[in-house]
Amino acid sequence: MDSHRLLKIGLFGFGCVGQGLYDILSREEALPYKVERICVKDPKKLRPLPTESFTYDPLEVLQDESLDILVEAISDANEAYTIVTEALRRGKKVVTANKKLVAYHLPELLQLQQEFGGVLLYEAAVAGGIPIIRTVEEYFSNEPLERVHGILNGSSNYILSQIFKLQKGYAEALKEAQDKGFAELDPWLDVAGADSRHKLCILTAHAFGRPIAPEEVAFFGIDYLSGEDCDFAKKNGSVIKMVASAHLTSDGELVPVVLPSLVDASDDLFVVEQEFNGVVVQGAYSGAQLFKGRGAGGHPTGAAVLSDIVSINSGYSYGYKKLHKTTNAPALALDFEFEVYLRSSEPDLIVSLGLTNLQNVQRENDSFSVIGTVSLGNLIREQEQIRKAGAYIMALSSDFVGAHVKRSKERVQVS
Description:
- The chain is an alpha/beta fold.
- The protein folds into 2 domains: 3-121, Rossmann fold (3-Layer(aba) Sandwich); 133-297 and 329-411, Dihydrodipicolinate Reductase, domain 2 (2-Layer Sandwich).
- Helix content is 37%, strand content 24%.
- It is built from 15 helices and 16 strands.
- Strands 3-2-1-4-5-6 form a 6-stranded parallel beta sheet, sandwiched between helices. It has a 6-stranded mixed beta sheet with strand order 8-10-9-7-11-12.
- Helix 4 runs parallel beside helix 9 (194-208).
- The protein is globular, with a radius of gyration of 22 Å.
């Protein structure tokens, strides 16, 4: 191999993703890429490489003109922001795996690329090894999309699989997910739905040409899931999946939400189990297509980073075709309605959520569960109250788009 073609990579972070990439490159010797410098934060942390392999000063890597590509793979979104924005100001080619960074700062990151001529790719930030951003960005660049939805968090999906497949309790399933490295020690981002929200924000920008701020997305998770909620699902021939969804209404308004949902065997997402992710892309003409793969882990995510490295090296950058086509970005459909199941100990929530079409499901000691209809606007406005109350809320079907209300009413059993 021509030694001049060896591309040098500067790597920030040597955790799950950084080590995954490093490991793939050490095994695939034919690839013309080499991790030349690695910047980490904690000098005392035990790592599988000798200490002289690392630097602890990000500027050393940012200022190194011999490096061709920079890869950011650290977990702290604020530090990632500092590194990535500085790299883009220097006109560098950058690959990141940090979804929170991209979700919160996409318009600014776009601006920096235009202004200084750098390039940023972030396939690894959404759905691990599934090439979903590129698929939506390229394959569906000219076809209008009606909806993009799916299971975007492997940790919570693994927990739900243990609960429904193996009848484990939530706490036991969560501990197992942590022991296997699927869930963080502080699992809030995963189980409360915030991680899925970040990924949905990024997908929505590519799918519908509208970058949405995380604050515009109502998100709910499984952190308050109880046995009786699971029993309700089973009684209705369903399992529970945490679904992140964005779709356009018939008026062309956008509905972004992360909501645990009842999913039965007829649903595309029913087969997405354990730590896998699954994304359904629904084109106006091509219909629904399911993309399924490993959503987390060093090798799948490292492989997505590698794919970006190869692409960025061959001159690829996101065209943001839908973003440039969309003169009027779609507004949020705040009056769009979902049919939901709510379990709480605070009756006031029914009033503040403006629940209509109420049906009682169960009353026990100090808590109750009901079915009702709620608007997107109320879900966004009241989400903190729902969390503070320790209440659990889920959709009666993952088909948020329209026809589900009548159908789910017909089959939902209320005890």
